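FORM 7B: Structural annotation worksheet

SECTION A. Query
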Amino acid sequence: MNDVNMAIADAKCSVDRGAFWHSPGEAAILANIASQFGTPTHALDMSRLTGNYRNFKREFEAGGLDCTILYSVKTNYLPNLVRALKAQGCAADVVSGYEMELALELGFPGDQITFNGPHKTAAELERAIDAGVFINLDSTDEARRLNRIAEDRGRPIDVGLRLNPGIAIYRGADPTYNEMAERAALESKFGYTVPGGAAEAAAAEISALSHLRITGFHCHLGSQITDMDAFAQALDRLFAFAGGFAGNHPLERMNIGGGFGVDGIRRERRGPLRGLLDFYGCDNLDAQNEGFELRDFATAVASLRAQHGLNGVQFYCEPGRAIVSDAMVLLAAVSSVKETGGVGWVIVDAGLNLMPTIAMHEDHGIREVAPSGAPKTLFRIGGPLCYEGDVLAAAKLLGNDIAEGDLILVEDSGAYTISRATNFIRPRAAVVALEDGKASLCWRREEFVDVFSFNVSPGQPAIGSR
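SECTION B. Predicted structure
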């Protein structure tokens, strides 16, 4: 047994549900991962992943909502991760052809896959029909394309339609932010907005097509949603529309989307007023609470379902972040420590190419893997990329003796990292899975030959070839 696996085995003796983070053996596990696999590297705790899924399912059931769970593959498409969730009984939500192919290759039956998104090619629609995948339409143009394919195959098919309730589900203490959020909710590019009649007109046009039948509605309102009341208000409007439609059409499914917030991440909600107050050193607007009470939300949705006469309709949801966020952490090494312009900087080897959502005002936990106990001081944490915006945190307390080669941990790296990473300046990171007392590479680090593998030079050898 190597050093990494020995450290994991020791830690499992004293940690509930296999959660390695914050365990007595965490520092040894992560130090050995860095030694064996290098940095930056994500570490994926498979026990926490499956525990999160079971907890999500349990909380919805306790709230009285029977809901088919579709894992949002776009959130993190690591095959190892998706396969583990399938083994737990999860279905799949995909938004691209290659995500659909991955789900099919991993053994998801077509009727356990839902295909969402604002753009689907003709080839993808054909593949979805042939595989029995359920399609949620985003536009009447897409509906007409799909209808022609269904006509060619002589197969009428059931479809869903994406709707937008037109209600802002992000709210903050800054009223200028809230006004911006209200406008953005109405102007979303996804589906059709219920207020103003666009949804009603689209549903009527699609229902008139020869080979399509609307049997469900879908909405997905955003990511890291923390306002349960706003979410429920939006669904109330959606259910009212669906209830009216069901009076004249058989309705079989309602998909309420995902975006359920987690408490390990804090997002800023600021508009012009907040920025002005900050500029003058008068930040008196309260910070927003993060997280999401799944059981209370499920109870509220179940009540709305009954209120709008939808008890006979099968409900679906599409969690991603709520399942994977804290199941993965990013391990990075300190490259340098310096003070310049009156600011202390810690430069690390992981940047926004690996954690792109931090640039969207997300605050993640960042800490030392093996703190020395020295007094803490505030540092800005910068990544390795050669552009000014590559900053992981504007202010984090770290030991004042932090030095080159020390390891830090960026928490909650499970969502929108692997699937959104780029190789801008630095390669994509590796992923090590921690399971049953073992650490194993499940996603290798990107290399030179990978970066230039798309190059086409007629008559010339491939770049990076040996």
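SECTION C. Observations
Residues 217 and 242 are 7 Å apart (CA to CA). The chain has two domains: 3-45+327-451, 117-317.

SECTION D. Sign-off
Analyst initials: ____
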